[in-house]
Description:
Elements: E1 2-5, E2 10-16, E3 26-31, E4 36-37, E5 45-50, E6 53-59, H1 60-64, E7 72-79, E8 82-92, E9 99-102, E10 105-108
Parallel strand pairs: 1-8
Antiparallel strand pairs: 2-6, 3-4, 3-7, 5-6, 7-8, 9-10
Amino acid sequence: MKVFVTDAEINIIDFITRFNPVGDVRVTIIREFDKVDFSENYTDAEYTFIDGYLKIRFLGVSFTDILLENSKYTIEILNDFKVIYRGKAIATVQTPQDYKITNGAYIYE
């Protein structure tokens, strides 16, 4: 699950893709409770692909305006009409935290 921070000017999210994208990618974000598709609302985004990770920087007000606190989203990333990533996201004002699983225990870093 990915985390969008609703009050951040820039949301940077890393994705491990199914294959290396060539050319442009299309990102679709749909809010789950009302099925609204926000694909056209975040034109200010930068995409980079480095060492197997697709990094997307969502910039500016156009993206933060679509996020609602505690809402869940479905993310789909296509390259040449093939799915390279499909997953879920949640929007929050809380700072994301990194956890590791070790012998059944969660450890905060």
